[in-house]
Amino acid sequence: MTTPAKGTKRGSSPARAEARPPRLVWLALLLVAPAVAQDTLPDDQTRLSLSLYDEGSFAAGLLVPSPWATNLLLVQPSFSWRHAQRWRLAASLAAVGSTDGDTHGQLRVREAWGGFTAGDFDFSLGKKILRWGTGYAFTPTGVLDPPRNPIDPTDRLSLNEGREMAAVDWVSGRHALTAVWASGITDTTALRYNTMIAGFDSALIFAHDRGRPDFYGANFTRVVGEALEVHGEFAHRDSNAVLLGGKYMLHSGVNTIFEWYSPETPRLGRYVFLSVGKARLRELPGWKQWDISLGLVTNTTDRSRILVLDVTRRVADHFSLTTHAQTPGGKRWRSEYGMIPYSALVSIGFRYQI
Amino acid sequence: MIRIAFPILLLAAAASAAGPDPDALIKQFDSLRNGWDSYVVRVSIRNYEEGKEDEEHAFEVYQKGTEKSYVEFLSPREKGQHLLMLGDDMWIYLPDTSRPIRITPLERLSGNASNGDVARTHYATDYTSVFVRTEMVEGVNCHLLELTARRKGSTYRRILLWLRASDARPVKADFFVASGKQLKSATYDRYQEVDGQLLLRRMTIYDHVRKGSHSVIEYLQFTERSLPDRMFHQGRSERF
Questions:
Q1: How many CB atoms lie within 10 A of CB A4?
Q2: 0.85 surpassed by complex ipTM
Q3: Which residue of B has its CA nearest to A142?
């Protein structure tokens, strides 16, 4: 659900209206205050967080008339409450202000749901983000997942939204069964069975979307030795989609992720994803607070590609600076990544979190 | 009489030469960090570089038995992340997502105090122990034990652990990875009594890769709590 921010006018700062903590936050602070003085942890537990983020983006080599510089302001509060492992409430919002010549504002409800547990069953109702796929950049079995973008697989701005749903989990021993009814462009009824078999974290998924063929899928992850993780997904609706991938970590802490993806319509493209990164460059004096990753997404059918660089510098406990850069390549206007209307984009952001 | 007494004396002398039972000592050591079969503890980690504090992390650790632990990250930058450890298998949950990402044993070693230091505290399950010798450490008579990983999920390949001879309280430890390189060392600094249980309150971990870097781990608010098994299932959609 996406709704415009109340009281936001064109040209005004949309974040200002949302920056004031909602009543719910004050109520939650009152709930959590008595817990601070206790020696043991209380049954009622509350979590609050707030992220403020501002990012400027600059494009080079623009091929269409559009602003070369844009700005994005995000205010993202989230709240969750739990009582005695039985009752749960959670909400996560994003107030988005974007300036690209004009200024626009939006209030997005990323999640807002409640749940309770009875016996072996967990029930939840509301808008919720579910991820059933095991893929990193692609996820053919993620029938209820937010759309995965291989250029931004981690959703670095935390703008993904859940779907409105009623869900029930049954967990017993090694087995977990989840049934979901979710509304959307088409209503979805989905079922997932998850278990561990010989070290394989594996799942079988079935989904029925009104007016579409039924969906069948399976996925797994497996750790081999100390440093290698492999994963795969298979999905069938109109035709087959296959994902195979792995993650390998070197002793130096450098993490490499590889994925090969053949979607249901492979004539439009098969993909290879490669990412090399390291969180915390601890071995270099003065670089402990830096994270760096370099990713490459290639459409092997039309041979277009995009190179993505992400650098993060943490400053003290609450601040961080981020740089995201991407440069596409391929036959101009005749390939997937050749359709991107610039030759390079650099985004520089500043985040404050409490 | 002499025929009976002589073999008994010989056996007693041999047992004394072999030293104390290392398995019993390790179980005693584990009980200083795991007061109950099922409990929750708040853990605070402060990292120091060249004597100056540069980062603080907070976690809530849910532990059940020796195989199940669930860690909630509470510090501002990591809020919303969770770590699940089931025996040798580990998953990390990113904020606002219910699907865990499988992680490899090597990924638990990042940072001065690693995920394994926080979530993996049953050494009797993870390591085989051998008594090496008795020696003095800073004027304290200690038993030196050598611990060797017995499973893939163990955080370190080898640990040298010095326990005070009088009561088996840990004094210091050296941690080694598969290559044989020493990664960290630790001192065990302070204890507390909670509901009649003596529990570790504070330990310090020294980084041997980055000299001058150390972390102080504090265990706060130990709470015995009956935790349901389903809380530790990787396929469960519900997260805090």
A1: 11
A2: no
A3: B99
Residues of B whose CB is below 8 A from A36: none
| Distance from the A307 Cα atom to the nearest Cα atom in chain B, whole angstroms | 24
- For residue A262, give every residue at least 6 positions away whose Cβ sits within 8 Å of its Cβ, in sequence order, or none: A240, A241, A242, A243, A270
First to last CA, chain A: 26
Interface contacts (A, B; CB < 8 Å): 151
CB A245 within 8 A of CB A257: yes
CB contact under 8 A, A223 and B89: yes
Residues of B in contact with A35 (CB under 8 A): none
Measure in Å the smallest separation between the Cα of A108 and chain B Cα atoms: 14
Q: Which amino acid is it at B205?
A: I
Residues A299, A202: Cα–Cα separation, whole Å: 28
Q: From first to last of the 354 residues of chain A, give the pLDDT tens digit.
A: 333 333 333 333 333 333 444 444 444 444 444 444 445 666 788 889 999 999 999 999 888 888 889 999 999 999 989 887 789 999 999 999 999 878 899 999 999 999 998 888 999 999 998 889 999 999 999 999 888 889 998 888 989 999 999 999 998 888 999 999 999 888 999 999 999 998 899 999 999 998 889 999 999 999 988 789 999 999 999 899 999 999 998 877 888 999 999 998 877 789 999 999 988 766 666 777 888 999 999 999 999 999 999 999 988 778 999 999 999 998 888 888 999 999 999 999 999 988
Using a CB-CB cut-off of 8 Å, the residues of chain A touching B229 are 171, 173
Q: Which residue of A has its CA nearest to B222?
A: A40
| Burial of B179 per CB tally in 10 Å (0-12, 13-18, 19+) | exposed
